[in-house]
Amino acid sequence: MKRNTVPLCLFVALVNSQTGFAQEVVSVGEKKNVSSQEFIEQVQRGNPELQLYVQEIEAAKGGRKQAGILANPQLSTQVGRSRVTGAGLSGEGTAWSVSVMQTFEYPGRITLRKAIANRDVKLAELGLNQFRLALKAQANVVGFNLLAAQTKAEASTEVANRLQELSEVLVQRNPAGVAPLIEIRVVKSAVVAFRKKAIEANEALQSALFEANLLRGQALGTPLTIMSMPVLLPSPPPMADFLDSARSNSFELRMREVELEQQNLSVKLRRNERWPEISVGPFVSQQDDIERQTIAGIGISLPLPFWNRNSGNIAKAKSREIQAETSLYLSRLQVDRSVMEHTLAYQLRLQELGQWGSDALEEFKEAAELGDRHYRLGALPIGTYMELQREYLDAVEAIVDLQAEAIEARGQLEVLTGLGPEIWAMKEKEL
């Protein structure tokens, strides 16, 4: 019987292309094989989005500086001709006037504007701190997703290669009879299915690599491998502790509180704006016709608040204040809900993973290899052998998915409570 080598070559070439084409681009100064902690540090150094939040703070500081500056004085000048006639006297000459007016706002207005601008700076700083905490949690999740994709791709490729080798061995035996021939066909059909799984796993690995490089500000094709190490999941404190920490330290709630303060100041500012600005300054005028006449003095101007009492803007600011109060109330409910949901998700996955221990993946791998050896010796039926290989891949996928979901829930709780890893107990359980 002729060996089917072309599909095997295509499969090997495709898998190699999925895992190896990223070697074309190498980032100078970055290691290819890094630990999870090293990956997080790379993300914190190189994430391009971080600069947006830094510049938002600088922009808010610029607005605060501008809020306390007086308006520039206004220079006004007039030049013309003056003519005097009557009573037997007449004359003509040049007339001109110059004035400089400085506008002074109603007392307290600049202070209110500066207070509002200070809240803008505080919001920008809270946004930056929240992003840094969320970025660290996201880097932890993305780094583990890359490691999980590596594990799945290795397991899928291992099983596909194992079945391909077995298929070639069975064909070389030149079996006689219907039963051995059907057995060969069963193995070959399984090879096709497991090849497809291996290709999909390697595609997922490449997608995880793209996401990891994008997060750390590197070229998408830059080679990167996360070193395998035990997954450490800390024991969670009581849910009440999570809720208390979130209500006191959540960046989301603190930002809503600052926005409410800002809207309260905005209402005061709009009420202050009912009163007019006053412009004061010296003026001088001269008229040179029959004789030279000079007038100098102090001028004062202000709008008379007859029709516009700023009532529309005051009503608008009050509505914005009520919206801010409602937003804070809803945010508190949403934070409580998110804390409860992620705490429950973390506890359930931690409990499930605790039943298997840290060496579960290695045990499943050894069982798959043991089954392969016994099948070749004739001690294991084909149905049991196929089921064992299939269940091995399913178990790998289930365990790494549970670990990834637990890590994601842990990161969300760290962000929601605003304390990061400090919220966890110091004792960690290895899973």
Protein architecture, described:
The protein has 431 residues and is of the alpha+beta class. 64% of the residues lie in helices and 13% in strands. It has helices at 5-20, 36-46, 50-67, 109-172, 178-215, 239-249, 251-272, 311-354, 360-376, 382-417; strands at 33-34, 74-84, 91-104, 225-226, 232-234, 278-288, 292-301, 428-430. The strands form three sheets. Strands 2-3-6-7 form a four-stranded antiparallel beta sheet, with no helix packed on it. The chain has a two-stranded parallel ribbon with strand order 1-4. A two-stranded antiparallel sheet has the order 5-8. Helix 2 (36-46) crosses helix 4, helix 3 runs antiparallel to helix 4 and helix 8 runs antiparallel to helix 10.
Q: Quote the distance from N terminus to C terminus.
A: 48 Å
Largest sheet: 4 strands, antiparallel
CATH superfamily of the largest domain: Outer membrane efflux proteins (OEP)
Unreliable runs: 1-29, 426-431
Please give the number of β-strands. Answer: 8
Average of pLDDT: 85
Q: Do you know the CATH architecture of the largest domain?
A: Up-down Bundle
**Percentage of helical residues?**
55-70%
CATH topology of the largest domain: Outer membrane efflux proteins (OEP)
Task: Please give the order of strands in the largest beta sheet.
Answer: 2-3-6-7
What Rg is obtained from the alpha carbons, in whole angstroms?
38 Å
- For the record, the CATH class of the largest domain is Mainly Alpha
Overall structural domain count? 2
| Structure class | alpha+beta
Note the beta-strand portion.
5-15%
The succession of helices and strands, N to C, reads HEHHEEHHEEHHEEHHHE
The general outline is elongated
